[in-house]
Amino acid sequence: MTNWPLLTVIIFLPLVGSFIILLIKESSINSINIKWAALWTSIGTFILSCLLWIQFDYNNSSYQFVEKIRWFDDFNFNYHIGVDGISLFMILLSTFLTPLCILASWKNIKNNIKEYMISFLFLETVMIGMFASIDILLFYIFFEAVLIPMYLIIGIWGGERRIYASFKFFLYTLLGSVLMLVAIIIIYRNTGVMNIQDLQGNYFDKSTQKFLWLAFFASFAVKIPMWPFHTWLPDAHVEAPTAGSVILAGVLLKMGGYGFIRFSLGMLPEATAFFIPFIMILSIIAIIYTSLVALAQEDIKKLIAYSSVAHMGIVTIGIFLVNQQGLEGAMIQMISHGVVSAALFLCVGVIYDRMHTRQISFYGGLVNKMPAYATVFMIFMLASVGLPGTSGFIGELLVILGAFKVSTFIAIGASLGIILSAVYMLYLYKRIIFGVIANEKVKDILDLDLREKIILIPLLLTVLLIGIFPNIFLDPMRQSIEIIITNYEIANGK
Amino acid sequence: MENSLYKIFLLPEISLTLLTCSCLILGLFSKKDSYLKTINASIFSLIITILLIFVNVDIKFAHYDELFSNNSLIQFFKIIIVVGSLTSIIISKNYFLELKIARFEVPILLMFSTIGMLIMISSNNLMLMYLAIELQSLSLYVLAAINRNSLVSAEAGVKYFILGALSSGILLYGCSLIYGFTGTTSFEQIYLSLNQLDNLNLGIIFGLVFILVGLAFKVSAVPFHMWTPDVYEGSPTSITAFFAIVPKIAAVVLIFRFCLEPFGNFYKEWSQIIMFLSISSMFVGAIAAIAQNSLKRLLAYSSIGHVGYVLIALAAGNQESIKAVAIYMFAYMVMNVAIFAIILSLKSSKGFVENIDELSGLSKSNPIIGLSIAAIMLSMAGIPPFIGFFSKFYIFIAALNKGLVVLSILGVLASVISAYYYLRIIKVIYFEDLNPNQNYNFTISLQSKLVLTLMLIIMTFFVFYPSIIVNIASNLMLN
Questions:
Q1: Within a domain: residue B101?
Q2: Of chain B residues 406-435, which have a CB less than 8 A from chain A?
Q3: Is residue B96 domain-resident?
Q4: In chain A, which residue's Cα lies nearest the Cα of B370?
C-alpha cells in the first residue's frame, strides 16, 4: 500500500492532461504537440495503472487502494474509490486501449484535433473513475458522463450518418441509465448506505429487489448490449471514427457486464435467481440471431459490431450462471473481447484509411499485397472465433464448462455461438484477404506501416498472453468472484 | 434588540423602494446618459439590498400585524431573486444600448418588479400576496412591450397583460372564496381555522383551486403556459432573460409557501393538482420544445419543463422538498443567467442570434463560447457532472422519500425526451459546418464576462464541492 493516492492520480491524470491541451493554442504547428501531449498523458496513465496491478494483493478479497473523502455533507455520499479483482482489469483495459486509440487517430483525424484529444482524455478519466468507484452515486455520475465525450466523438468525427447515430447512442443509453438513478435513490432511501461493498450483504425484500433489478437491467442491458436493446450499437460503431469504435467495443460495452456483476449479482441475488431464465433466453437469442445477422452484413464494421453483440451474449450467460467457471469465463471473455474487438476495429481502420470504404465486396485478395496485415488480422480473427492458444478460447471454454454444470441446453446455446462465429469470421476473412485481386484500386494498397505495427503488436501479444497464461489474469480476480458467488448462494439458501 | 424607527431602513424592501425612487428621480433629472446613470445606480442599489438581506435585522413592528413573515427559506430566496435581477440587469446592459431601447425606465421597472417579488415571497396574507403579484406583474407587462416600435414586442406585452389580468382575476376570486369560508386572509389564521376541519368543504376547495390556477399561470405550468413562448419570443431578449430567471423563482416560492403553509394539513387535496401540473409541464415542455427553431421559444419550453420538475418536489411536500427546490432554483438561476449572458452578447452577421440554426459551426469560430453553450445545455438536460444533474437528483430524492415512484419515473423519462432538444443545440454548434457567410461577433462587457465566468464555474465545479450550497439548503425551514 502506498501513502500517496495512486488511484486518484490515475483517474485524474488524463483530465489534467486535457486541461493542458486546452491551453495549447490550436494551429498547424501545435497540432503535433497536442497529439504528443495526449499520447504521453495516456501512456503515463497506463504505466501508473500497471503499478496498480503490481501492488495488487491477490489474497485480499476486499477493495484495495481505498480512498474515502466526505463529499456531500447532508447525505452519506462519499468520494469513495478502490480496486478489487473485478475492476482491476477493467481499469487496465481502459488505460491500455486509450494510448492505442490516440495513436490510431494520429493521421486520420484532421480537423478539431484539440477537441478530439480532450474528448479522449476526458473519456479515459470517466471510464477509469467508473470502474474504480465504490460509492454508487459516484459510479452513476461517471457512468453517465461517458455519454458526453462519446456523443461528441461520434458526432464530430464520425461518418455520414453520424448525427443520427450519435443521437441514437446518447438517448438510448440515457433512457436506460435514468432508471438506474431512480433505483439508486430507492437503495439509498431503504438502507442509508451508498457503498457497493456494504450493500452486498444487505438484502432488500423480494418485491423491491425485483423492481430494482429491472431498473438496473434497463441500463446495463442497453449498455452491454443485449438483444433486443442492441440496435444503437451497429449504428454507433459504423459511424464512429476507428478509435471511437475501439473504445466503444473495448471498454464501454464492458460497463454493462461490470454493472451486472456488481449490482445485479452482488446486491440483488434473489431477484437475479428469479430472472436467470429470462436472461438466458435473451442471451441465447442474441447469440444465434446476431450471428446470423452478422453473416449477412456487407459492411465490415457492422459485421464486427454484430459479432460484439453475440460475444456479449456469451458474457451474460457466463455472468448469470453464477458459478466460478462461468464468472471467470465471463470476465476473461470481456477482457479478451475488449482486446480482440478493439484490434479488429483497428484492422478495419487500417484498410479504411487506405481505401475509404468498408464494403466487403470492394476488397479481396489483400494477402497478395499486405502479407503482414493478413497475418495479424488472421490471429485476431481466430482469437475472436476462440481458437485454442488465443484469449477468446479461455473465456468461451470456461463459460461452456460452467454452463454444463447448470444446464446442457444453455451450454449448447453458448457453443452454437462459437460455431456461428467461426462461420461469419472465416467467411469475412475469405472475402477480404483471400482470392485474387479483382478490384483495380486495391492493387496499389500498402502493407502496415510502423505506426500501425506499434499499435497492433501490443494487442497481439496480449491476446496470446491471455491465451497461454490465463492464470495471470484469473488469480487476482478469483477472491472477488468467490465473494460474489458465496453471497449469492447464501441469499438463495444454497 | 430594541426596535427603533431608524432601523426600519435596514429592511431590504423599504430601502429598495426608496433607492428605486431615487433612481427614478436621477433618471428624470439627468440631461444626458440617463440610461447609463440609472442602470449603474440600480446595480448599486441591488447590491445594497443583497447586503441588507444578509444583515437580516428582525424588526418586530415592521411585520405590520403579521402581514409579512420571515424565515430562512424566504431569506434564501430573497437573495436568489435579487442576485437574479442584478445579474440580468448586468448582462442586458449592452443589449439595450445596441437595440436602441436604452430608456432609463427599464432598470426602474425591473427594480419595481423585484420589490414586488420580494414582498410576494414574504407575504403572509392573501391580500398582500395579491397586491405584490400585481406590483411585479404590472412592471413586467410594461417591460414586455418596452420595444415600442416592434410589433411582436407590443403583441407580447398585450398578450401577457390580458392573460395575466385573467389569471389575477381568478386568483382574486379564489382569495375571496377562501376569505368567505374562513373569515380571514392571514396565512396563519387560515391554517388554524382549517385545522379544525376534517375535510375541506367545497367552497374552500374551489378557492384553493382558483388560487393554484392563478399561481400556475405565474409559474407557467401546463395547461396555463400558453403565454410563455409568445411572450418570451416577442419581448426583447434582455427582458426575456429577466422573465426566465427572476419572476419564475418568486412564483415557485410562493406556490410552495401557499401549499405548505395555510394548506399544510390538506396535502391530499392540493397534491393531486400539483402532480397533474407537474407531469403535464414536464412532458409538454419536453415534447413541444423539439420542434422549435427559435432559441427563445426553446428556452421558454425548457423553463416550462423545469417548472414541472420543481413541482415534483412540491408534490412530495416534505422537508427534503424544501431543500430540493432551493438547490433546483439556484441551479436554474445559474444556468439561465449563463445562457442568456451568452445569447445577449452573441451576434451573427444578421444581428443578435435568435434562431438555433444561426449557431451552426459556432465551435469552429468561437470554441470557448461553443463549449460553454454545450456545457450549459448538458447541465440543463441533467447530465452529470454538471449542476443540473444534482438539482434533479435532489428533486427525485424528495419524491422517492415520499414514495412517489411513478412520478419520479415519469420525471426521468421526460428528462430523456428533453435531452433530445438540448442535444440538438450541441449538434448545431459542433456537428454542423460553419456557414462561410456567417461571421460571429462576441462582444461582452467586463461585468457580464465576470458574471458569465462565475456562473460557469459554479455550474461546472459544483460537483467537486457541493456542500456549500447543500448545507445552506438543508438548513432552510418553513414556519
A1: no
A2: 408-409, 412-413, 415-416, 419-420, 423, 426-427, 430-431
A3: no
A4: A115
Structural domain count, chain B: 1
A66 three-state secondary structure = strand
Q: What is the mean pLDDT of residues A60-80?
A: 85
When CB atoms are compared, the residue of B384, B405, B419 closest to A171 is B419
Please classify residue B201 by burial: count the beta carbons closer than 10 Å to its beta carbon, then call 0-12 exposed, 13-18 middle and 19+ buried. exposed
> In the predicted model, is pLDDT for residue A2 greater than 70?
no
Residue B390 falls within a domain, yes or no?
Answer: yes
> Contact B471/A156, CB-based, under 8 Å?
no
In chain B, what residues touch A75 (CB-CB under 8 Å)?
397
Q: Would you call B384 and A188 a contact, using CB atoms and an 8 Å cutoff?
A: no
The grid coordinates listed for B394 are 435532489
CB A380 within 8 A of CB A342: no
Of residues A151, A174, A188, nearest to B416 (C-beta): A174
Q: What is the pTM of this model?
A: 0.93
Any domain includes B333: yes
Going B97 to B359 to B296 to B381, the CA torsion angle's sign is negative
Question: Does residue A155 sit at the B interface (CB-CB below 8 Å)?
Answer: yes
**Residues of B in Cβ contact (< 8 Å) with A112:** 363-364
In sequence order, the β-bridge partners of residue A491 are none
Q: Give residue-wise pLDDT tens across range A412-460.
A: 988 888 889 899 999 988 888 888 877 777 777 888 888 888 889 999 9
Number of H helices and E strands in chain A, helices first, is 22, 2
In tens, the pLDDT along B260-283 reads: 888 888 888 899 999 999 999 999
> Scanning every residue of chain A, which has its alpha carbon at the shortest distance from the alpha carbon of B419?
A171
Cβ contacts below 8 Å, chain A against chain B, sum to 92
Q: Show the DSSP H helices in A438-470 as ranges.
A: 450-468
Give the ranges where B123-234 is alpha helix by DSSP (H): 126-144, 151-182, 187-195, 202-219, 227-234
Domain carrying residue B298: 290-314+327-479
Query: Mean pLDDT of successive 10-residue segments in chain B (479 residues)?
Result: 66 90 92 88 93 78 75 90 94 88 89 94 91 93 89 92 94 94 90 86 91 93 91 92 93 92 87 93 93 92 94 90 93 95 88 87 86 93 91 92 91 92 91 80 88 93 88 82
Total count of residues recorded for chain B? 479
For the stretch A328-341, pLDDT in tens is 999 999 999 999 99
Partners of residue A74 in chain B, C-beta under 8 Å: 323, 467, 470-471, 474
Q: Do residue A148 and residue B431 have CB atoms under 8 angstroms apart?
A: no
Q: What is the pLDDT of residue B2?
A: 56
Contact (Cβ atoms closer than 8 angstroms) between residue B184 and residue B155: no
Q: The C-alpha cell of A443 is what? A: 492493387
Q: What's the CA gap between A378 and A300, in Å, rounded?
A: 15
Query: Are B209 and B157 in contact, with CB atoms under 8 Å apart?
Result: no
**A179 close to B (CB below 8 A):** yes
- Tell me if B405 and A182 make a contact (CB, 8 A cut-off): yes
